[in-house]
Amino acid sequence: MIPRRTVFCLGLAQLISWGVSYYLVGAFGERIAAELGWSQAIIHGGLSAGLLVMGLTSGAVGRLIDRHGGRTVMCLGSLLTAAGCLGLAFAHTIAAYYAAWLCLGLAMRLSLYDAAFAALARIGGSAARRPIAQITLLGGLASTVFWPLGHALAEQFGWRGALLVYAGFALLTLPLHLTLPAVSARPLPDAASAKPAVTLSTADTRFAGLLYALIVTFAGVLNAGMSAHMIGILAGLGLPAAAAVWIGATRGIGQSLARLGEVLFGAKTSPFDLNLVACLVLPLCFVVGLAGGASAIAALAFAFFYGAGNGVLTITRGTLPLMLFDPKSYGAYVGRLLAPGFFLSAAAPLGYALLIERYGASAALILSGTLALAMLVSAILLRRRFRNLQRAD
Question: What are the pLDDT digits (tens) for 50-100?
């Protein structure tokens, strides 16, 4: 049983960690560019570099959590996040700026959702499903909290001073991560006892891993592309700029409400079914967005339901492996499967930008819908092949 205090502290740590790392460039990017005279490509390239580091280190971090638990790993993530924020605060050259982002990239892999999911699986095995969903509730509010907070801090202290405050926030996650139990290299009894009722063959394990990797990789590409360009896409379809901003903001509302619904009512629903529903929603919302054109109602449905589908997929990204793979090797195996998603996500903002520049917002929605259809096919195959697989709780 995972203590509620640990779940709450880990959720709060996710809120802070996402806010001061992944969403950092959204809060300060324009100010950094204005002061240093750099292009937006250079500024946002820092986050892309960080995502590449996440991909390169994904498997290794997963193995560390499998062997030693999440406490030490995530505490190190807290320290490196603070160091990365300090590095950015004192950066005056492109080399120093990118060095800080390389540090933040490793920090993000050590401290964000995937590390937290593996840490919870290491503690509770299949019983980690509820806590995995619960910690995403607070984490999903990171941009809502830290974008306006970062703006206010930058107004008061400048972006460099704001980043010093961010480093302090990162250090506040250290005691939160210390609430994770200190574990030995041996799996905990509860996690070790979570055995699959049906042992997958090597071929089935590989097939399940392939389908899971396709879903999380394309979901990551869509998330990166939509995070960077949803407002621009809505404006490109013909909506006024102000309307595009507030309609785009409903994505976060849809994401949080969907996660809350899963936490409150999803206990009896299989992760395979939840994953299938989420993957069904995504292509439909892109079709609505494309067909609706400049319609505010269609755009609202597109943004809200994309957020809802993406919110549920964040949860099933953590819970599906509890059904498919051995909890004792959750971190290492899932870490390898996640790596391609980090690489492609790093390229997604630039790729979407080039596509929109050459062919318009509609082309971005067509590409997104195609990726979403591939996710849907993978989800259907995953459910048909493995839906009867159960784990003892």
Answer: 999 999 999 999 999 999 889 999 999 999 999 999 999 999 999 999 999
pLDDT digits (tens, 9 = 90+) for 193-209: 444 445 678 889 899 99
DSSP output for 308-349: HHHHHHHHHHHHHHHHHS-GGGHHHHHHHHHHHHHHHHHHHH
| Token duo for residue 170 | 């990162």
Alpha-carbon distances of 280 from 21, 289, 336, 345, 373, rounded to whole Å: 31, 15, 26, 21, 8
Map residue 102 onto helix, strand or coil: helix
In this prediction, residue 143 has a pLDDT band, given cuts at 50, 70 and 90, of: confident
The tens digit of pLDDT for each residue in 274-320 reads: 999 999 999 999 999 999 988 999 999 999 999 999 999 999 999 99
Non-local CB neighbours of 168 within 8 Å, separated by 6+ positions? 82
Which amino acid belongs to residue 81? T
- Closest Cα to residue 306, out of 368, 235, 214? 368
CA–CA gap between residue 141 and residue 116 (Å, rounded): 16
Question: Does the structure show a pLDDT above 50 at 393?
Answer: no
CA distance 222 to 370: 11
Nearest to 120 by CA among 75, 65, 196: 65
- H-type alpha helices, the chain: 4-20, 24-36, 40-68, 70-89, 94-111, 113-124, 129-139, 142-177, 189-192, 202-236, 241-265, 271-292, 296-324, 330-359, 361-386
196, β-bridge pairs: 391
Residue 390 neighbours by CB distance under 10 Å: 12
**Angle at alpha carbon of residue 7, lines to 219 and 116, rounded to 5°:** 40
Sign of the torsion angle spanned by Cα atoms 320, 325, 371, 385: negative
Counting beta carbons within 10 angstroms of the beta carbon of residue 228, is it exposed (0 to 12), middle (13 to 18) or buried (19 or more)? buried
Tokens of 371: 């990726």
What does the angle CA 260 – CA 246 – CA 255 come to, to the nearest 5 degrees? 20
